[in-house]
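Thread: "does anyone have the structure for this chain?"

Original post by V.I.:
We have the sequence but no experimental structure in hand. Need at least a predicted one for the grant figures.
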Amino acid sequence: MRESVRKAGQRLMVGFHGHEASADVKKMIHDYGAGSVILFARNVASPEQVAELVRELQTEARAARHELPLLVAVDQEGGRVARMRAPWTVWPPLRAVGMQGSEETARKMGEALAVELHACGFRLDFAPVMDVDTNPQNPIIGDRSFGADPDLVGRLGVAMIRGLQENGVAACAKHFPGHGDTDVDSHLELPTVEHSRSRLEDVELRPFKKAIEAGVASIMTAHVLVRELDDSVPATLSPRVIDGLLRRALGYDGVIITDDLEMKAVAKRWPPGPLAVLAAKAGCDLLPVCATHDMQVEALEGLVRAVESSEISWSSMDDACARMRRLKERFVVRWRDPHPKAARAAAGAAERVALARNIADQAGMAV
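Reply from O.Q.:
Generated one for you, tokens below.
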């Protein structure tokens, strides 16, 4: 495998359909060096099946002589964004935790999420949402946020981050620089934020600063046009927002992950190859292309062409790969596959179910 392909592959996260590893995802891992995989509800049937699926994916990486295991990720926030439901613990949305306001509860929920995920072989959870929910017309964030107070969001988000990361699962603060005050779903169209810089500093950015101070392992970008920061491209593709603000001004040295590059906010405007290159040039390290094999191939080939033509420098490619390596060395380390019986035993343990019910009951919500 060419060095450019191997390094580009470490910056690609791929998804697929089915309860077993598809031929396409195996090809992405084996032939294109894809170093990260995301699972969705479409990939999940039971704890034993998920553990076996992760083992199958890691076996493919071993056969392809990957230096480090795959980073396997999932969106397990609670509420409506939870890819794993019963028999795993069914959690209320983060809004319920916000209504209780307890850092200890947020930390315990993070710990509980980590225990169930870790047993299945997941080492990255795309949680918590650090968006501040200031717009009741927001169709995509809403109760996924802890609430409308940036200090509350920061405080509880940091507690959940610690609960996850102290129990072996990398957390991801999302969606930078803030998706809370939008009235458009970025899965469908490009939202716009019109706030002043002072308002962004006071509200949207405050929780992310707290997450950075707490050592969050990864931050996910928003496909949102924030005019005050860059009125030409969405945050995901903006060097001003990603490299200038997040990396340099805020001093973040962890892994920066784009939201799914198949979302229409960006995919309607750029083909996969140029889109991946723009995200990489903006300063994003890991680029999820979550469903379509042809788009995954085009994205990777775009990165390879860009580095081989010096549109993307080798040094920036090396820096991104080094950040991915550090995350893997911290959370993935050895080639150790999940065990189906352990995955089943961890799912929906009585104390975690009781915690979820207590959070929901105090918020007057059902789970």
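V.I.: this helps a lot. The chain has a mean pLDDT of 96.
O.Q.: and DSSP finds 15 helices and twelve strands in the chain.
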